[in-house]
Structure formats: C-alpha cells, structure tokens
Write a structure and sequence with these properties.
alpha/beta; single chain; 2 domains; four-stranded antiparallel beta sheet; 36% helix
C-alpha cells in the first residue's frame, strides 16, 4: 500500500540552522497495517507523516501509494488517497458550519463539486446512522454548528469525517494529545473500532507508549530521523514499556531515567 524509498528531508538547508529531519528512511507498509509511531521530540514522527501527505516536499527519495508514484503530487491531489486527523481538534472541522454540512463536505472527498445544495435530504439518514456509532448523541444535533461542540466531540466528529469515504491511508498525528484522559480513551476506542471495521491502512503518531503497544499490529520507533526499531504481530503483542525503553538504550547507547523523559 505504501512504499517510501530513501526519503530525505531537511529544514533550513544550507543555513546555520540546518536540520536533517528525515535521514534516508525506507519503509514498506502492507494494506491493512495499523502502525503506531513513537520517538522523542524532534525524532521526525510528524515530519514523516507530513512528507507522506505532501505538506512538506522532500529533498530526495520516492513515495508510492498503491500503483501511484505520488512523489511530485501536490498536497490537494494526495488528499484523494489520504485522510488526516490532527492534534488540534479545531483543525478537522469547520466551526461555522453545521454538523451535517461538515459531514456533507467529507462525503464529497475526491469528487467534483457542482452548484447545488450541499446537504441532500437523502444523506441525512446516512449521517445519523454514522453519528450513532460515536455514542455522543450527535445524531440528534445535525443542525448545530461544529463550534458548539467540545474538543472531544469535535475530534470524534473529525475521525468520522476522515473515514466517511474510505481513504487509502489514514494518518493520525497525535490526535489524542489535546484531550483529557477520559475523552482520549473514548476517541482511542472509536479509532480502534473505525480502523477495524473499515480495515484501514493507518499510521498513528503517539507520545504514549502504552497506546503504541495497545494499538495496531506494528510499531516503529524513530530517533533523529531514522527508524531504530520496527516490530510487528506476535512480537509486538508481547511488548512492554520496559522492553521499548531497553530497545532505545540498545540502539542509542544512551541512558534515560524514564519513558517520560524519552517522550516528553
């Protein structure tokens, strides 16, 4: 489904502030893989997702999704294949539009838009059924504007919007980080349900080691723009937080007091 070959990404290249953010990463992702990505600040986690989505151009390397070489595709063209949920719950919805209008926009992803009413009466029943799975009562609030929702409600709505039309790839960039623990767990459970039901190929960046271990069938650890650990399936299911810390020490030859220091 995804093939990254020798990806290199710099920031401020040629200046005194030059940073090598992605250092010759190659990665193959199978269809249906759910990969959690962890690493210290500045490891390149979000940058890797931004390079895949086309937000950041790369210096060299190639990016393929399915049969498409998308290396030179602009971000808007890649959006036909890639759905994203960001850390900030406010980024995934239009605050001044109603819930049904937000869903109508999401339902048109990848399609041409003409001059007609955005929300069709025949779509409302579909929207209500989709909203019911959130368990938040939003199916009875179709005409409320998204700006009236709490952060957790908006993030749940964003998850639904991102997957309303099944994307080839789902990118989750620390989408729980801005939520309180209870709400984060609710959105995490929703994430698991949607990804499982729709069999989505997913990459999820997280700072939480327990979430990285709990979710998905594959885990990747980044450090200084490189993949230093890649584990999947049965081996991943047996992992503990201490195992991950040990792998980090082994790969880097560094000593850290705790995983909080590693991922803070």
């Amino acid at each position: 489904m995804i093939k990254l070959s020798n990806i290199i990404k710099y920031f401020h290249k040629g200046s005194v502030n030059e940073i090598l953010a992605i250092d010759d990463i190659s990665l193959t992702v199978k269809e249906g893989d759910f990969i959690t990505i962890i690493g210290s600040n500045g490891a390149g986690k979000s940058t890797l997702l931004n390079c895949l989505a086309g937000t950041y151009p790369i210096e060299s390397g190639t990016i393929d999704i399915g049969n498409h070489n998308i290396t030179n595709w602009p971000e808007f063209k890649r959006a036909r294949l890639i759905a994203r949920v960001f850390q900030d719950p406010l980024l995934g919805t239009c605050a001044n539009a109603s819930i049904e209008q937000n869903l109508a926009l999401a339902n048109k992803r990848g399609l041409k838009r003409g001059l007609s009413f955005g929300v069709k009466s025949r779509d409302r029943g579909f929207f209500k059924e989709e909203l019911k799975q959130l368990g938040l009562g939003l199916e009875d609030r179709l005409l409320d504007t998204a700006g009236l929702l709490s952060g957790g409600q908006r993030q749940a709505l964003t998850m639904l919007m991102a997957t309303l039309v099944k994307p080839d790839i789902l990118l989750l960039d620390e989408h729980l980080a801005a939520l309180d623990p209870k709400t984060a767990q609710q959105v995490l459970d929703l994430t698991q349900n949607i990804v499982s039901q729709k069999k989505l190929t997913t990459l999820m960046v997280t700072h939480q080691m327990k979430h990285a271990i709990q979710m998905g069938n594959r885990l990747i650890m980044l450090h200084r723009g490189k993949i230093i650990y890649d584990v999947r399936d049965e081996e991943k299911r047996k992992l503990t937080v201490n195992d991950l810390l040990a792998k980090f020490y082994e790969a880097q030859g560094e000593e850290l007091a705790s995983d909080k220091m590693l991922l803070a």
